[in-house]
């Protein structure tokens, strides 16, 4: 038996935790390319062979086993060395990242993350370096479990040495005699159960945990591994339990049970989010007044546990704001779990959110499965596209927000959860309330703090900054020397309304970097929709164009408030800048606007508004990432 097959239950547990956290599929094979664990379609292959069972055939897993190297495959269908199925056009995977599992210098298996859909591909290849780092950490976790299993099976010890070892391990250990009484426990068991040893040893297990499956092991002689068990006494506890019979000459003489807090599974999620959700407010790029206002509001609410509803058009950066709020909150060390309510089929959404009990429906795992709210306990749940949640699930979500409990599908007992909820939508939820498509009580519970992310067309001054940021990122990815954008391209960027917002701008820059043949991106390198849209007239350098655009904003604002003594104050508040900053920008126009502003304070001067070349230079960038 291979090393990984000897700890198969643990390997499967790790695979399922990874898939639940990342939203992609996981497959783990041993050194003979036997599938040891898997999720999705790979679960059906457990026990079978990949790549024809021949590690020397030259396909992906065989190369990992032979070289000990990690691989990122961006297009498996067009790679004849990916898998035997790619030779016949039967490949379902759209991308894969895999790495070796190494124990004491020897490769004992391969761990792979696969994308079956375009959405999963975007998750997998969005941050390949971080994904690989996370995968290596999970591989090392399995390697440590292999070493632990080897040590326990090979070590010959005395009873005194055994006692020392039991006291030193982190898992709780209970020894139960053939009558069901607890004969031994270690220090970890005391801590996990919440009772001192003197109140545990000598007590019948049924008086502590009535109906515990451990007692059935005494009767049947059949043990179990990594089963999820929930107990209410002496305090609510959620454990993963392994219970094995102790047999002497064919008779069951007792049970040894090891257990650990279910938070160990959550820790796997937490490890994942450390690698993939590192977004702070400094990473939200832009310095326009509209963006700075909403950033300031978000930073203020981050310190509390209040529920936040983030609204804005598609592509404005709602998830980045949610991640930044989480990173700035007291829950930053906990998991950040994303649930796209519009991307998960309605028939599966309930079990994904709230979990299910074993046997709750056809195809359900026998031991049940925790939902995303349980996995996120101690952290934050981000409910994206909340407007797509069915009405009957809105009722269950309302209970989570009000009572901080969930009830699994097929379950009858409430489970406490400690999560912060941040929701987001690009739909008009207030109109949906009026149309009875969204519950009014849930809306007001979610929108304790509403945040509106402005579309890119309302903060055009950020466009040059974002374009340069995306250009810098992309030329490093493709290792291509591209110095910048032509004047016509920047004019087109400023003139375009960007219905897809920041995401569309990012995709446009990536498109242009791949297509350009020169050192500067020109109009010919842009997608057709931008080439045909045209650019504003006026010409000039980027600085001059930004000045004109800024001046037009100021002119429009002052025009709305007239020439009264409070006009400048009201305009400054709307633009999100100080009165002194507005004076400075007005004086910089050279068309008498500064003197007009002075006149509002009684210092005299002639009236005027900023002319075509008004304004200051382009805003400087803040942070290191897009909104």
Notes on the structure:
- This protein is α/β, with parallel strands linked by helices.
- It has four domains: 149 residues, Beta-Lactamase, CATH 3.30.450; 99 residues, Beta-Lactamase (2-Layer Sandwich), CATH 3.30.450.20; 176 residues, P-loop containing nucleotide triphosphate hydrolases (Rossmann fold), CATH 3.40.50.300; 78 residues, Helicase, Ruva Protein, domain 3 (Orthogonal Bundle).
- 41% of the residues lie in helices and 17% in strands.
- The protein is built from 24 helices and 21 strands.
- Strands 2-1-5-4-3 form a five-stranded antiparallel β-sheet, with helices on both faces. A five-stranded antiparallel β-sheet has the order 7-6-10-9-8. Strands 12-15-18-11-19 form a five-stranded parallel β-sheet.
- A hairpin with a 4-residue loop joins strand 6 and strand 7.
- Helix 4 packs antiparallel against helix 9.
- The C terminus is likely disordered.
Percentage of residues in strands: 15-25%
Overall tally of domains: 4
Order of strands, main sheet, comes to 2-1-5-4-3
- What is the CATH H-level superfamily of the largest domain? P-loop containing nucleotide triphosphate hydrolases
Please give the number of β-strands. Answer: 21
């Amino acid at each position: 038996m291979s090393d990984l097959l000897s700890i198969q239950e643990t390997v499967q547990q790790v695979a399922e935790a990874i898939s639940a956290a990342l939203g992609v599929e996981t497959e783990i094979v041993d050194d003979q390319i036997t599938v040891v664990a898997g999720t999705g379609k790979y679960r059906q292959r457990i026990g079978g062979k990949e790549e024809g069972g021949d590690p020397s055939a030259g396909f992906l897993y065989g190369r990992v086993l032979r070289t000990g190297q990690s691989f990122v495959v961006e297009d498996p269908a067009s790679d004849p060395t990916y898998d035997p199925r790619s030779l016949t056009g039967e490949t379902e995977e759209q991308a894969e990242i895999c790495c070796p599992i190494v124990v004491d210098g020897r490769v004992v298996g391969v761990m792979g993350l696969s994308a079956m859909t375009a959405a999963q591909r975007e998750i997998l290849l969005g941050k390949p370096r971080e994904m690989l780092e996370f995968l290596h950490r999970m591989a090392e976790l399995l390697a440590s479990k292999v070493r632990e299993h080897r040590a326990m099976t090979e070590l010959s010890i005395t009873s005194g040495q055994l006692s020392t070892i039991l006291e030193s391990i982190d898992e709780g250990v209970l020894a139960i005699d053939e009558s069901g009484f607890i004969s031994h426990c270690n220090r970890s068991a005391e801590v996990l159960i919440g009772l001192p040893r003197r109140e545990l040893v000598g007590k019948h297990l049924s008086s502590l945990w009535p109906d515990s499956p451990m007692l059935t092991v005494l009767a049947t002689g059949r043990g179990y591994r990594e089963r999820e068990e929930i107990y209410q006494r002496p305090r609510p506890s959620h454990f993963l339990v392994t219970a094995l019979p102790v047999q002497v000459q064919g008779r069951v003489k007792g049970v040894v049970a090891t257990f650990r807090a279910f938070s160990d599974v959550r820790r796997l999620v937490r490890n994942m989010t450390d690698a993939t959700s590192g977004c702070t407010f400094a990473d939200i790029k832009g310095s326009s007044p509209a963006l700075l206002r909403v950033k300031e509001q978000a930073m203020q609410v981050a310190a509390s546990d209040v529920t936040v509803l983030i609204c804005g058009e598609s592509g404005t950066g709602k998830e980045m704001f949610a991640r930044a709020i989480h990173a700035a909150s007291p829950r930053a060390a906990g998991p950040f779990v994303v649930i796209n309510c519009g991307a998960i089929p309605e028939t599966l959404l309930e079990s994904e959110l709230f979990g299910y009990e074993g046997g709750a429906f056809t195809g359900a795992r026998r031991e049940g499965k925790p939902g995303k709210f349980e996995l996120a306990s101690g952290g934050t749940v981000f409910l994206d596209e909340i407007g797509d949640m069915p009405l009957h699930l809105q009722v269950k979500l309302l209970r989570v927000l009000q009572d901080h409990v969930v009830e699994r599908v097929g379950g009858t007992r409430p489970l406490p959860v400690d999560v912060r909820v941040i929701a987001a939508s690009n739909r008009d939820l207030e109109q949906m309330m009026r149309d009875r498509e969204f519950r009014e009580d849930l809306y007001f519970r979610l929108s304790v703090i509403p945040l509106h992310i402005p579309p890119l067309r309302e903060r055009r001054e950020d466009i040059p900054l974002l374009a340069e940021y995306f250009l810098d990122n992309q030329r490093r990815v493709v290792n291509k020397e591209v110095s910048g954008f032509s004047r016509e391209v920047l004019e087109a960027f400023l003139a375009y309304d960007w219905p897809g917002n920041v995401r569309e701008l990012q995709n446009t820059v990536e498109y242009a970097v791949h297509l350009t043949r020169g050192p500067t991106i020109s109009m010919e390198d842009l997608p057709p929709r931008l080439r045909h849209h045209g650019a504003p007239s006026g010409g000039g350098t980027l600085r001059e164009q930004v000045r004109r655009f800024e001046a037009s904003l100021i002119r429009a604002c002052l025009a709305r408030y007239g020439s009264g003594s409070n006009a400048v104050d009201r305009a400054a508040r709307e633009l999100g800048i100080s009165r002194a900053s507005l004076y400075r920008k007005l004086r910089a126009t050279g068309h008498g606007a500064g003197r007009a502003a002075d006149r509002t304070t009684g210092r005299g001067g002639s009236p005027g508004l900023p002319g075509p070349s008004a304004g200051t230079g382009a805003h400087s960038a803040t942070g290191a990432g897009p909104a």
